[in-house]
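Homework help board

Subject: predicted structure for assignment chain

Our instructor gave us this sequence and asked us to write out the predicted structure in token form, then describe one feature. I got the tokens but I'm not sure how to describe them. Can anyone check?
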Amino acid sequence: MTTSAAPGLLTPEATPASRLARLVDALRADVRLGLAPEPTARLVARTLGPYLGTPGLLTPAQREGDPEGYRQHVLHAEADGSFSLVALVWLPGQHTPVHDHVSWCVTGVHEGTESERRYVLVPDGRAARLVAVEDVVNPQGTVAAFAPPGDIHLVRNDGPGPAVSFHVYGADISRLGSSIRRVYDLPADR
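My token output:
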């Protein structure tokens, strides 16, 4: 899904903080509807899409990467723990482990391109293994929404430059530290 900038975000008087506040207010309205995880994620995805690629939405510090691994910038955590907005910055070659999440999640590529490999967990005798079911390339403007179970994936930046993505989680990431519920160290399709 590719979208255009949200109305009112490009006015000269709008600062990164005021632009981000508009996004947070819109996300708050979606989450406060109290829908089940999957419809909440779909609604949040529709809200996030128009903000992707908007110039000046992040400060320079919020766009900084880390040569040691992808970097998480918590932009907002709702006081009641109902959602968080995070910017992830990926330098070329950086990736996550194969993982799933603690809650529903919406991702949107703000800058660059991210690659993703999606998996399903299948029984294998007395154990289990991961089977790759889809490889996806997500350019700027792409939005994805999902809710556990069935949210196992690996994300990476295969591009030549940084990638920046927004992630909205149905949990307080400032308290939890990460959206990852479980890292899978199982036999997997590569």
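Reply (TA_rk): Your tokens look well-formed. For the description, you could write something like this. The chain is about 15% helix and 35% strand. That's the kind of observation they're looking for.
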